[in-house]
Amino acid sequence: MSASTSAKRASWWQSMGRAGIGNLHHHTISILGMAVVNIGDLAIECLDEAEWNFSWASIDA
Question: What's the domain of life for this entry (predicted)?
Fold first, then answer.
């Protein structure tokens, strides 16, 4: 996982904490939000990896 992805996640959690999320309704929203963030991270990581592989393939060619 890239450092910027981790930093984004940390700041996301800090903003959630500042919003004072404590009740179940908001807790559910934060879990759903985190799932979306994780899926987004995964997509970013896959794209980064694909780009990395592509760049190596072009160097080898």
Answer: Eukaryota
